[in-house]
Amino acid sequence: MTKTMISSIGRRSALGLGAALLSAPTVWAQDRFPSRPIRLLVPWAAGGTTDIQMRALADQASKRFGQPVVVENRAGAGGILAPQQLLNERPDGYVLSQMPISVFRHPQMAQRALFNPLEDFTYVIHLTGYLFGIVVNAESPWQTLEEFLTYAKANPGKVNYGTPGVGTSLHITMEQIAGQRGGIDWTHVPFRGWAENSQALLGNQIQASADSSGWAELVLAGRLRLLTTWTAERAKRFPNVPTLKESGIDIVSASPYGLAGPKGMNPDHVKVLHDAFREALFDPAHIAILDRFDMAPFHLGPDEYAAFARQQYAEEGAMIRRLGLRL
């Protein structure tokens, strides 16, 4: 072999090594997760409690990912449209959904289940729960929950109440309240979100609203009256308002929720998502939003959340069968 041939081989080897080195960053960029925006589906209308909280969470998570987390609202059907959309998405980690408690109820109430919450999703992180309550127009005659329930019982069919949808915690709890008070006959009016619900209440088209704490500012402004909250303890911002339990109704309802993706997601991607969203959950800017709505962090990791989902499914199923609920 001549020196010229050796030199030629050396040059070719060097060129090949250089090409490999130059291509390495490109390969790394392709493998890095996430390398493009993440879609976060929110099954409620824009402007409500969940939408505001999820947008604050998405903003903080974007800073951790170095990629935008884009909120998409899929309101309607009691909160199942966004989770149902996950069935049509690739399990690549780029589409997640908020998972309301109706996800565990709907398949057990419907004649034909649209999904199986124990098999069709990958649970990523549990986040928080709501402050729920019953509000009436401030111009209404009812000063207390007892006065309102007494009127409803004495006037069957004359009270209409609004919630974010059929099969939601708000709907089911209102029917439980009616049952505990000896069979109150009132009418449920489902809305797509708090914006529609509040407009109907302020316009006296309905007599009460059961919803999460999107009503807080209108209560503080004196336009709505808060009759009760559904938490175990009184809300920090409304210390003079009794809970359901204090009012003689043995119910506590917070409707905890988290985030999930399609089934079959890469465990490494799940970890990346969980870690970033966990940091976002406890970021002071996001905690400020939770405080604004009297909500508290309720963190669970992927395995714990999956176990919690199985527990919720069993408990909600038992309640549905006990109450005989059907869609």
Question: How would you describe what is shown here?
Answer:
The structure is a single chain. This protein is of the alpha/beta class and 327 residues long. It contains 11 helices and 11 strands. Strands 2-1-3-10-4-11 form a 6-stranded mixed beta sheet. Strands 7-6-8-5-9 form a 5-stranded mixed beta sheet. Strand 6 (160-163), helix 6 (169-180) and strand 7 (187-190) form a beta-alpha-beta unit. It is globular, with a radius of gyration of 25 Å. The relative contact order is 0.18. The model is unreliable at 1-30 (pLDDT under 50).
Biggest β-sheet: strands ordered side by side in the sheet? 2-1-3-10-4-11
Mean pLDDT: 88
Q: Approximately how much beta-strand content do the residues carry? A: 15-25%
Order of helices and strands: HEHEHEHEEHEHEHEHEEHHEH
Distance between the termini: 84 Å
Helix percent reads: 40-55%
SS-derived structural category: alpha/beta
Q: Oligomerization state of this entry?
A: single chain
What is the number of helices? Answer: 11
Low-confidence segments: 1-30
Number of strand segments = 11
Backbone shape: globular
| Rg for CA atoms | 25 Å
Largest sheet: 6 strands, mixed
